[in-house]
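A.,

Following up on our hallway conversation. Structure tokens first:
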């Protein structure tokens, strides 16, 4: 019996800022972003969009396909949680009409936690093969204005159904892990924006890749040459290119630069126009690969490197299942991306500075999102979600 990803769907905000507009406002060359970090656009959440609404919108087609009664567990991965106690997934549970016997839990470890959720979900299904476990990763990446991180903002959610005998990707049980206590990126409870040491974070990312790969090679017979493609955590597109070049060098790969680029380029398409989505980014990258690769991936092995600042990292692998292309949501995703609305720099600042009540006052939030679910109000420290 195999276990893995049976279906995958993602969602992002209705608004985006083209990084050319940001470059113009900052009086800098747009190629600093388009070429330098490999990003073109960044998603900006509307006032009535957040990690809950994006998560519910991402998961809706998966729940409609299998039926709400058949999901036994919902795991919600995020590093931009909205409550220190209540799991954001509990709101999603209600919005999607999941059954009352479905367990819900929220997981946190920076951008890594979605991978932890998937590994736990695989273990649950291996124990009880009839179970269907829904993993949702949802985040809004925010940094201070006029900082190096500003251009790497973004938002998005991905929903993944983990089952026995999956139709998309079989997840191999062997993994390579690496953990080290570092301060490359963190967000204390009293801050809405993260603190980051960008150069140090890149250094730790690459070190963690090396260590996780070495551990993976101890556990798995697979070598670098056994993989046709690689999915990396994507704080920005250029990071995946740096990571893959390092991994190829570590393994003394005989592939040239163009061949190495072909192993990752299709994973970058959606991220380039969405921006950073933290926990969701690597799995939106997987979706991008499955939906945009020009050749059939059936039977091919994919290498995954998941990194969470702070830091925890993992390298694992999966095999694409025959017939996977019949179970994708390519058209729906493309329609969503095509329907997004571009905003100017001043509108971007308005969204960035939209009120975020902290002392219990009542805030009615006007309808703006085109999604199925929205945040309607915040009152007495309670968030009120409705179906549109």
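Then the amino acids I'd put at each of the 388 positions:
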């Amino acid at each position: 019996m195999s276990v893995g990803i049976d279906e995958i769907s993602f969602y992002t905000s209705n608004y985006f800022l083209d990084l050319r507009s940001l470059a113009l406002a900052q009086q800098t060359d747009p190629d600093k972003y388009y070429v330098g970090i490999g990003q073109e656009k960044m998603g900006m959440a509307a006032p009535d969009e957040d990690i809950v609404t994006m998560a519910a919108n991402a998961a809706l087609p998966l729940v409609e396909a299998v039926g709400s009664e058949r999901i036994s567990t919902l795991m919600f991965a995020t590093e931009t949680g909205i409550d220190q106690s209540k799991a954001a997934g509990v709101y999603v549970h209600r919005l999607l009409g999941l059954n009352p016997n479905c367990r819900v839990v929220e997981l946190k470890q920076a951008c890594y936690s979605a991978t932890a959720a998937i590994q736990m979900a695989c273990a649950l299904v291996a124990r009880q093969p009839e179970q269907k476990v829904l993993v949702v990763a949802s985040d809004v990446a925010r940094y201070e204005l006029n900082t190096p991180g500003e251009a790497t903002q973004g938002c998005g959610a991905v929903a993944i159904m983990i089952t026995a005998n999956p139709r998309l990707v079989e997840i191999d049980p062997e993994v390579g892990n690496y953990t080290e206590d570092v301060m490359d990126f963190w967000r204390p409870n009293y801050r809405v924006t993260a603190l980051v040491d960008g150069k140090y974070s890149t250094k730790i990312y690459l070190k963690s890749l090396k260590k996780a790969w070495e551990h993976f090679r101890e556990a798995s017979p697979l070598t670098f040459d056994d993989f046709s493609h690689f999915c990396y955590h994507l704080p920005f597109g250029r990071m995946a290119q740096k990571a893959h070049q390092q991994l190829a060098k570590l393994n003394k790969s005989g592939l040239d630069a163009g061949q190495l680029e072909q192993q990752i380029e299709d994973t970058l398409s959606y991220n380039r126009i969405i921006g950073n989505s933290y926990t969701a980014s690597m799995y939106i990258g997987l979706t991008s690969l499955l939906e945009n690769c020009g050749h059939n991936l059936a039977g091919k092995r994919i290498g995954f490197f998941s990194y969470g600042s702070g830091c925890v990292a993992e390298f694992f692998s999966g095999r694409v299942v025959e017939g996977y292309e019949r179970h994708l949501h390519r058209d729906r995703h493309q329609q969503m991306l095509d329907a997004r609305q571009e905003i100017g720099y001043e509108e971007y600042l308005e969204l960035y500075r939209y009120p975020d009540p902290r002392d219990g006052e009542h805030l009615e939030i006007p309808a703006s999102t085109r999604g199925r679910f929205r945040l309607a109000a915040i009152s007495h420290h309670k968030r009120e979600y409705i179906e549109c």
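The two ends are 40 Å apart (CA to CA). Curious whether your intuition agrees with the design.

B.
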